[in-house]
Write a structure and sequence with these properties.
311 residues; alpha/beta; TIM Barrel; two-stranded antiparallel sheet
């Protein structure tokens, strides 16, 4: 089970941190962008090449101290096909370095379209008599708004190809409550979705008691997260919202079980843009060593989380 591999990596590193690879051009040091602007001009191709090079620096700096990375596909899609090439190469390089890759794609659609998305992102596509993998991801994120038939194709591919999902339950954005907190027969929608996610993952439970079908549960809503942990005892949480969005280690402790397992916590700009913060500039001298700031940020986040979760 892919969830067991993720948990093994968390235990090996002692660090329930996932690094969000969500690069923006203003995060990327000038020595990188200048190289590709000189070669390709001020073009999407130059931007995408810069992003991939930036990601490689970050991955090289953190791969041995974190279990996983989470590239957000929208940051790459904005540059069209060149951006998607950078996305695929980023996933490939991360896996080469032994990292679990969580593709943050948040797809959702009717069953036939969901099947196509699943084939491309975690399944396989056959051309005549040869099978191909589209995107080298271990997990992907999904939006469950269309219901069970939009999720079923992904469940089949998870079982067939040892892949996993993180399905949106209670998200970290400020206005998530406009829909997710609405009551249906006295029960909030996020809780009903949580119960569905627990059910969807019931056939994919690994040796640690968690399913390869996880849930996205925001660090900025600790009371809801506490309730969801009760509703979903076998569901692993992907927790966004730590750091830049305001979530604190104390807030997300409820996402973990008494063994200190059950969740992986995302930080994006707090890690990949650490070199832009005064507090981390001591970590590197020459700007070509900027990624050492990301490494220190990962260590600081690990220590912060560990003081609030067991054991």
């Amino acid at each position: 089970m892919i969830i067991d591999k993720l948990i093994d990596r968390i235990k090996e590193t002692g660090n329930p941190t996932v690094v969000g690879l969500d690069p923006r051009l203003n995060y990327i040091p000038q020595f990188i962008t200048d190289k590709y602007y000189a070669k390709y001009g001020h073009t999407p191709k130059a931007a995408a090449k810069s992003m991939y090079k930036f990601n490689k620096y970050i991955i090289d700096a953190v791969y041995d101290i974190v279990p996983a990375v989470k590239p957000q596909i929208a940051m790459y899609e904005r540059y069209g096909i060149e951006g998607l090439k950078a996305y695929v190469k980023t996933c490939e390089y991360a896996k080469l370095k032994g990292l679990i890759v969580i593709g943050d794609i948040k797809r959702s659609d009717i069953a036939s379209t969901a099947e196509a998305y699943s084939d491309g992102h975690i399944g396989r596509v056959t051309v005549v008599d040869t099978e191909y993998e589209g995107f080298p991801q271990d997990f992907i994120t999904l939006n469950p708004y269309l219901g069970s038939d939009s999720v079923t194709p992904f469940l089949k591919d998870c079982a067939a190809y040892e892949k996993g999902l993180f399905v949106l339950a209670k998200t970290s954005n400020p206005n998530s409550g406009e829909i997710q907190d609405l009551l249906v027969d006295g029960v909030p929608i996020y809780e009903r979705v949580g119960a569905l996610i627990e059910k969807w993952g019931s056939e994919l439970i690994g040796q640690y008691g968690f399913s390869s079908v996880g849930a996205v549960v925001g660090a900025t809503h600790p009371e809801q997260a506490k309730r969801l942990r009760e509703v979903m005892p076998h569901t692993f949480f992907l927790v966004p919202g730590y750091g830049a969005q305001g979530g604190k280690a104390e807030d997300l402790a409820v996402c973990f079980d008494k063994e200190g397992l059950g969740a992986i916590v995302n930080s994006s700009r707090g890690i990949i843009a650490a070199h832009m913060k005064d507090e981390y500039k001591h970590c590197y001298g020459d700007e070509r060593n900027f990624a050492q700031a990301a490494r220190q940020a990962c260590t600081d986040m690990k220590n912060d989380l560990r003081r609030c979760i067991q054991p």
